[in-house]
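Attaching the record inline, Q. Sequence:
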Amino acid sequence: MPAGGATGKLCREGLRFGRDLVRDPADIALTTDLYELTMGASYAALGMRERAVFSLFIRRLPPNRSFLVVAGIEEVLDRLVSFRFNDAALAYLRATGQIRDDFLPVLADLRFTGDVWAVPEGRVVFADEPILEVEAPLIEAQLVETLIINAIHFPTLVATKAARCVVAAPGKTLIDFGLRRTPSIDAGLAVARASYIAGFAATSNLLAGKTYGIPVAGTVAHSFIQAFPSEIEAFRAFGETFPGGVTLLIDTYDTLQGARHAVTVARELAARGKRVVAVRIDSGDLAELSRAVRAILDEAGLREVRIVASGGLDEYELAALTRASAPIDAYGVGTRLGMSADAPVLDMAYKLVEYQGVPRLKLSTGKQTLVGAKQVWRRRGEDGRFTEDVIATRDEPAPGAGWEPLLEPVLVGGEVRHRPSLAAIRARHQEEMAALPVRLLALEGQQPYPVRLSERLTARQRQAIDEARRREGVVERSRA
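Structure, as predicted:
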């Protein structure tokens, strides 16, 4: 395409990548679906500005998931406090011809002034439980729908898969290797953060390390080995030039011969005061190869050298290696984690549940919603593990002594109330996983966990359903 075309225009104006894109206030506000703004314009024209409550929840868990790990709440807060339409955004909206002109001044002055109640990141939730609820003037609460779902959906998927990986490889060091195949730079950051919350020890993603303070880890690619006349020369070169403890990638040509070369180089480096700390295997039968490599290292007196494995791993592969007692100390988990490959989608919804103080709901088949502002209460057994959840109205007390609330006010009047550190979120998650019933840790199938509605919420729900049916002239099918 000529330089004067679209490509040339982009080059002249410059391209933005990664977090710069979602940190520009105009782009944050425009990161939404058109119908949010067309609805907002209608609300404004009709004077519908009273307070509304919207609830974010998962209708049903994906296959082989018995729980979900909440992540992305902090990103929601970042987006809401930055939410605004600048002149460039307003000019674009005017140019679409699909937004009423009299709505543009409303958008120019719009800021998020509402409240947000949310389940803290790192905690686990189940189907139908509100993860987050927004209480704000109707237009504000409506316009942020897409931003909120987008912020929570993918990190929650990844945090859940990462937690399952940790369960599948107890006592092992796990490292996020997912960046190169995530859908975007921002997605790579989300993966690194979510997996760290869930118990991964490090990431290969340097931007995530800088942004979040997550430890970073990495070695070399096979191209480094191939660039030298021989594998052992590549090992020597890397050992001489890398400033810290050396990890050698040993499967470029033959894994066992690579292990023997690693022994030779480890001895040479030790004579000069440097150490080979690990070898990495990235292909083949990892259980069989790790046992053979371990034998070679141990026979050479290198029992302290760790074995790292990578290559198409996820919780199912990790569990198989654990069952096989593979002598692997650490795993690099990449693509299947970064894409949540076996469960890439959540049935996540953000629905109006109250407006003008009146309960609102959907009666759609399979998509009925729970009315009103809510709280989730959780009870523990004598062993400290979770035994039952109750979804209740926000205004009712706990079901009894010892029940703990899950939803907390995190944004009040448009201002952030509390920002926990990433370390605190990670520690909270570890406590949460230790309190899960053991049956929920199974990797296959869906194990039951009791979640029920409180009597008050049940009554309000029944009343709202009856009123909606009377108003709309709907006859229950069982009575038709």
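The longest strand covers residues 51-58. The chain has 19 helices and 19 strands.

More tomorrow.
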